[in-house]
Please model this.
Amino acid sequence: MKSRETIVGGNWKMNTTLAGAPVLAEGVARAVPGGVSVAVFPPFPFLLPVRDALARAGAAGRVALGAQDAYFEPKGAFTGEVSLDMLRECGVTLVLAGHSERRHVLGESDELVGRKASAILAAGMRCVLCIGETLAERESGRTQGVNERQLRAGLRGVGPSNAERLVIAYEPVWAIGTGKAATPTDAREAHGHIRSVLGELLGGTAAERTPIMYGGSVTAANAASLMAQPDVDGALVGGASLKVDEFSAICAAAAG
Ligand code: PGA
Model:
């Protein structure tokens, strides 16, 4: 049993429908075991129906409502963006910052991700800061350097005082959606290094307390071996989070 919180998130990405999202949420609410923190991250238009579905299933508070992104400005002329206050009004308590698809498909910079992470924590919400290297970066021996750079930029506005709401997700880009998860050894090495950088940036106490999720092709079959690694404190799950059985089995593996 780990002393840190274990947390599993279902990142639904740009999937589900208005009818299907609440059904999936209710299924998750009924199936997930205790002993692990669970969150779902539906698309923006489905946050309210999912919030209501979680409440109907008696899971409000037990399954947290997350958002896949947010803008750092509080309001104004930012067409297409969504503020943290808007998300809070919808019942959101945690927000992803810097997911690999935001960085590599939508072109978000390290600096923008850092501004988002600070704003999320300053708003009193939990921030899941996502980091991870591409295949080319791994093959050229730059995995640790990239993770360190993304952590330093992502946590520029974060100190020991607001770090208690921080969660890190290590998601190697080459493992996301490919069916090719990191090996437990890859994950152990990366997570150990991430925790040592957190120690430098936030101090030892905060670094020890901060959960580090692994993400990238997590399934019911590989979850237990990944989660058995000392610094792997849960999972951020994409494809497998769209199936109740698969997702709840991953949560059960995380709960140990
Ligand atoms: P995947 O996605 O589980 O489908 O690989 C993980 C993620 O992007 O968070």
About this structure: The chain has one domain: 7-255. Residues 184-202 form the longest helix (19 residues).
